[in-house]
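User: Sequence in, structure out. Go.
Assistant: Echoing your sequence, followed by the structure tokens.
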Amino acid sequence: MPRTALLVSTALLAAALPLSSAHAADAPAPVPVDLFEGEVPFASQPAEGIFTWGADSDDPPTLRLPERADAPEGGHVLAGDYDISGYGGFTHDYAADRPAHDWSAHRGIRLWWEGRGDGRTISFEIKDGGAHGEASELWTTSFTDDFTGWKRIELPFTDFVYRTYHQPVGGIDHVLGLTEMWGYAVTLPAGTAGQFAMDGVELYGRADPALRTFVTTDAPVHSVREGGTAAVTVTVATAGAAPLGEPVTVAYRTAGGTAEAGRDYTPVAGTVTFPAGTPSGTARTVRVRTRKDASAEPAETVPLELQVTGARAPAETPQIVIDAHGLPYLDSGRPVRERVADLLSRMSQEEKAGQMTQAERGALAAPGDIGAYGLGSLLSGGGSTPTPNTPAAWAKMIDAYQLRTRTTRFQIPLIYGVDAVHGHNNLVGATIMPHNIGIGATRDPRLAQRAAAVTAAEVRATGIPWDFAPCLCVTRDERWGRSYESFGEDPALVESMETVVQGLQGRADGRDLSRPDKVLATAKHFAGDGGTAYGSSTTGTYTIDQGVTRVTRQELEAVHLAPYATAVERGVGSVMPSYSSLDIAGDGRGPVKMHARADMIDGVLKGRMGFDGFVISDWAAIDQLPGDYASDVRTSVNAGLDMIMVPYAYRDFRTTLIDEVRAGRISERRIDDAVSRVLTQKFRLGLFERPYADTRGAAEIGSAAHRAVARQAVAESQVLLKNAGGLLPLKPSQKVYVAGTNADDIGNQAGGWTVTWQGSSGAVTPGTTVLQAMRGAGGNVTYSADASAPTDGYDVGVVVVGEAPYAEGVGDVGNGHDLELSAADRAAVDRVCAAMRCAVLIVSGRPQLVGDRLGTIDALVASWLPGTEGDGVADVLYGRRPFTGQLPVTWPRSEAQLPINVGDAVYDPQFPYGWGLTTLARIPQGGERTLAALGAAARAAERAGAHRAGQTLVTRARLIVQHRAGDTMTAAVAVPFAEADHLVSTGRYGAAVARLTAAYRSA
């Protein structure tokens, strides 16, 4: 409906309302924002629309526009259902590609709300200034649902306060200007399921100019060394930037706090006056001088109280902090162990509990909670990003959080964490690497380390010192939605790829952690998350993720624990337990959640393996333990967890932990051990000396040099499964018909954990798609996504198919997913391969079933999830690099074969573990005599410890066997072939050639 028509209909409605509801004669006519008659669609940026959001996949509410006879305005209302565990709600944003709206003529915003009488608080937020609705300053108020039936809720703009948490880059100007408005948002109550209905959002009344002047300060915390002077900038500003119409006075004085007036600082008091006519944006400075003495002291605070007349006061009272000084733990020349012991001896139980608490940055009730509760850590969950999502915004956001720690006695810095699982994947513009499954396909530990080093450099350059990676899971069933986070199905392969720990952290002794290009690594998910049985999950609709791993003690040690022993040897700084349960045959305990297994965390990991880092829980994972909340806290901490990720429950967790310690149910010794481990890594990271972001490396984020590493990883990860008649590599002179849903989609190419938790299709981040890369390689390419364009006159077809993004249990097979190509992909393959010689590329996080179609496909490539650098795919397609990748997991003939893994008693896959053809210029020739010679040489290399030579000899033997086997795979060939690749990963080169010889004889 055109806006002019909306205004007419609204005016008619106002005329029909009682006098008390109509606008005053001298006020402007109400301006509709939403009538919910379909005039504003369900859509998101950059278009205008209404969209939902939430902390987790099940937190966004469902919305609908039902027709209601009792609708206060028009015939429809906006209604919805919600069941929110974290946070959730909906937003109406104006179009980002059109000008913002001017609300400054009006008194406020109002809406009709259907009350339920449940006393719940509904938060209402408006968006002011900035580039668009998702990069605007946020101002919030609320109302209480303590009535029943329809009621008009009026929210004067004077009731809105600057939201001090989760602001875009710390805010814009802290002034509710109202001249550039981008819409509104509603946050619904969490904790209990509910329904809502609303109607007729509109601007009402006449603005009161006297209430549109603001006083702000430059920062909420001003940290100075003892003897220094704090300078607090006080600024006056008006909505619309008009000069002051009336004078504004700001009376100030130092009062309260932990510092002693006269001894620690010189008290100040006075008044700053901004006369009428003062330009908006005028600033004055209040200075507070601190005093220096000879004593060592913790930090002390000096609040600067402000009393404002004629304008709105700042959202917070600025705090001046005299930094801690002279204490032994602050001496960087002392050994870390001494510094930890000194600091720990000074801390209260409350301060120790705070260090064990990690909150989600978007869940902070107020940023001051960081200091008030002494929080040890914050994290960004998948998709929890600043606005705009740039390196500078990340650094500024995290520095603002670190600033809050300065108000605590000992100024212990935060350790901020993110899931950078394939590059700094939350950051738009970062270098996105292949997922771990692709890195495993490279069989190149040195390249894996280089890729991890790029990730570390990009993460640390945005102020983040901690990465929740790598995943050391051993994927044993590709129906698992996290299988692409694994390096492969063989624990020996996973262990060989753990060079990524050094790429992230540097040397094993931790001496490199303080470098500006290194981060603390996290080995996850301890232990057995990749071995859960299909159908064993009890989490929502998940079918396998977070389920039960049923193993013998021997299987547990050999498959799921072995990678963690290697990680400990490599000095990994933190470990994250799995959501899953462990059921060890014969122990009589049945399935027990890993977060409760003291025998595994405290006994095996910390005890037998000697892990000296700290253990961090997974996202709200302790909530899955049986019993009440106190039991969850007690059980997990006593099991050996040192820091608990409680995204939304940080206050409750800290209080409960303190209560449990005071009651004697958690020992002070256990708390001291946990806090010591956390502090140790903070000292090693150099956070006490340099808590703020070192952004010198930010210019390299997404740089050509970093993308070159990713491009090489992509090329080496491509696995050539079939190549009949030497179709690949392509020649630039060939006329190529390209089709398929994944040929030109950077989001599908990157997969889950890309910008958002689940990832999404489309242009989510800068990069090069496969199609763009093929064109860039000089290919003569025609593209038809659905293969509907005519197919005559082409030399070869390339069909790029596969999966759309998903993450974790959302991607479990049976939870809306399977391993079959989509109908559109199957149709594209059939059409192209029937018309010409064809190559099919499967861009996916796990094998996709091709079945009988294999016979019609000339070349088949497992392209995994390559990330942003599609040029790496083109490099092997056009022969700039040879195909060298090998399968990190077994490729099944059918889903009925799952789970299927190397070493199974029955093993008859379509392609075995380790399979991977090559396009090297010269493929080794020879038969059994050649294999015998290679075996002898491989045994000699093994005895000499010449690993590279041994691997090269086995590769030659493997290529000979693959050439003989051709396109026909039998169990007799697959079994010894797969076993040979396992033997290579364990350094048994002679035995590997012997098994390859057996495969050769069976081919």
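User: And one key feature?
Assistant: Confidence is low (pLDDT under 50) at residues 1-25.
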